[in-house]
Amino acid sequence: MASSMVSGVEKLIRVAPAALGFSGSDLHGKHFPKLGLVSCAGNGVNIRARSKIPVLRCSLAESRPPSQPRFIQHKKEAYWFYRFLSIVYDHVINPGHWTEDMRDEALEPAELTSRNMIVVDVGGGTGFTTLGIVKHVDAKNVTILDQSPHQLAKAKQKEPLKDCKIIEGDAEDLPFRTDYADRYISAGSIEYWPDPQRGIREAYRVLKLGGKACIIGPVHPTFWLSRFFADMWMLFPKEEEYIEWFQKAGFKDVKLKRIGPKWYRGVRRHGLIMGCSVTGVKPASGDSPLQIGPKAEDVSKPANPLVFLLRFVLGAMAATYFVLVPIYMWLKDQIVPKGQPI
Ligand SMILES: C[S@@+](CC[C@H](N)C(=O)[O-])C[C@H]1O[C@@H](n2cnc3c(N)ncnc32)[C@H](O)[C@@H]1O
After folding, report:
1. What's the predicted TM-score (pTM) here?
2. Where do the record's region annotations for SAM motif I lie (predicted)?
């Protein structure tokens, strides 16, 4: 994985195979080694590892190569995608990719340690992740923000979320003041942001000094067919890209925890829609040290209807592949004897 280079600044990072791969226990420690935890402190990059660490060269991207079409990675495309997907999101889509036990594991590094914390859930959608947040934090202190009114309508129907603030907004341009929140959470949304670095910079800005951001998102496949469909659909970042975006935004103590559905037995070659939970701590109050230009895209930006439709249909077709992958992996999990790799 680390050897598949993306364009941009090259940086030497130490990568422990145990930290970046699974080769022995499943996600609950039965058959594969424990979840990898990649930790990046300050400018240096440390990987927590138990054994000797080979040094791999990882290329860290300025941005993703434009050659990949990614048909549904723009705000208007994501808006329409969720116009339809919101109807089946909780009951049909999530069970294959984003289960309650995965959610709870992914939220652990966010350290939701007090009911009084101010929390923002960005790209909070139907509130599936927010349901995990309000187990630890009073709902009245939690704001769910999303650009899709259709997704938010589902969140509004959930009883445990009735005291949350629910607002429409853009992850790349948050309507919160600087130094506002104790925790910034965003699950499964970064893949639709045209400029992920801008979104992570916003996460930094809205957090208080010592506040923590936790971004849960996809990881890029290595198997060729899965990579083809992933790159047609949306942004599947590489692990090192998340780390670079966090560091550039100014976060310290950046860590990456691997997650995945338990029936995958740790397999990551097909990529994962929810593949990692990345956290970072804001070390100083105020705005991010990273200066970037004005926002490039808005959900209300006009688009050529024919081009839009073509992109949308192709993107939705590519997304269908990832509805089938969890079913395929589930069948393999049923067939292959426990304890063996699949
Ligand atoms: C896969 S859903 C995740 C929903 C929820 N966080 C969860 O864990 O189930 C992705 C969500 O991100 C939202 N989204 C996409 N781009 C966005 C943006 N630029 N600003 C705010 N929300 C966005 C979508 O509308 C959608 O509700």
Report:
1. 0.83
2. 119-128
